[in-house]
Amino acid sequence: MAAPIKVVVTGAAGQIAYSLLYQVASGAVFGPEQPVFLHLLDIAPMMGVLEGVVMELADCALPLLAGVLPTANPEEAFKDVAAAFLVGAMPRREGMERKDLLSANVRIFKEQGQALDKVARKDVKVLVVGNPANTNALICSKYAPSIPKENFTAMTRLDQNRAQSQLAAKLGVPVQDVKNVIIWGNHSSTQFPDASNAKVRIGGVEKSVPEAINNDAFLKTDFVSTVQKRGAAVIAARKMSSALSAAKAASDHMRDWFLGTGDRWVSMGVVSDGSYGVPKDVVYSFPVTVSNGKWKIVEGLTISDFAREKLDITGKELVEEKQDALDVCKD
Ligand code: NAD
Ligand code: LMR
Questions:
Q1: Atom of ligand 2 nearest to the CA of 241
Q2: Is the pTM of this model over 0.95?
Q3: ipTM, interface predicted TM-score of the complex
Q4: Which ligand is nearest to the CA of 156?
Q5: What PANTHER family does this protein map onto (predicted)?
Q6: What is the 2 CA–ligand 2 centroid distance (Å)?
Q7: Which structural domains are found in the chain, ordered by start?
């Protein structure tokens, strides 16, 4: 058995963590041979609730769980961690856009960037889930200059999973038979879910999704807006934001980053190098493949005029969010 790795989950007393912690501690993320030592960060008033979560983790009797450290101190939480799930932040409520959370949440990611910079492993892989996730990840990276920018990512995997699931339902196939759907840009209502390169396996034969669906209007309108608005639809129904599916997506994202994707494409918000003509130095979701713990943007895709407009809209929003976040961090 390998030596345990230290993994931090922030917002550990919250909704998403309640599903995520079991997945991490049971081997679904880092593999069935990798023990984990969990660091659980939340704010001081939540320490009582967190104690209950610690009890439940013990009661799960999980062979891969090497230990648990609950704390309200970011420097203790981030000490020597190899993976960081940054979940802790305020969720939106009905009628809000995710960027409405910016002024409340971005300071958390400034402070946590500074703490990661001081005490985390320099190869730590950071996944930001707390909204607005892309801009929070950018700010976290900015305040952790000793850690490579490539190590900071934002979660758009939930959008990818939603898109894949919508396409599978439309095609009447199991969800794993659809691949290579892309989420471009921001985890917000401007994101562009793009099925133009997606593939589906039907009757043992791989086909292009646009050909199999044969309904361009659906792929350009209903499909896009259903995925863009899915988070809001869940909030309207549950009166709370998605948690089960968000935790599953966070597990998928970190597992693929650690263990690799093969030739499957996955979407991750990463610090943009300007690929596909989108703005640089914002955290933009691209299609990537991962091997040996490193992600790489899928190159050479054709961008239609329709897609170009969508990529630019979500890029513009990220540039505006970045400026707003930098202004908040000055205070
Ligand atoms: P929640 O309110 O149930 O839990 C959040 C937890 O974070 C709380 O326990 C809170 O005390 C804690 N917290 C607040 N400030 C903190 C800090 N400075 N350090 C550590 N912990 C802190 O919320 P949730 O439903 O778990 O959602 C968490 C975040 O994830 C929200 O911002 C939500 O919008 C976001 N989210 C993102 C996605 C995505 O796809 N990227 C999906 C779902 C939810
Ligand atoms: C989601 O996509 O479900 C989350 O980002 C929560 C939200 O505010 O929509």
A1: 6
A2: yes
A3: 0.99
A4: 1
A5: MALATE DEHYDROGENASE
A6: 35
A7: 5-154 (3.40.50.720), 156-323 (3.90.110.10)
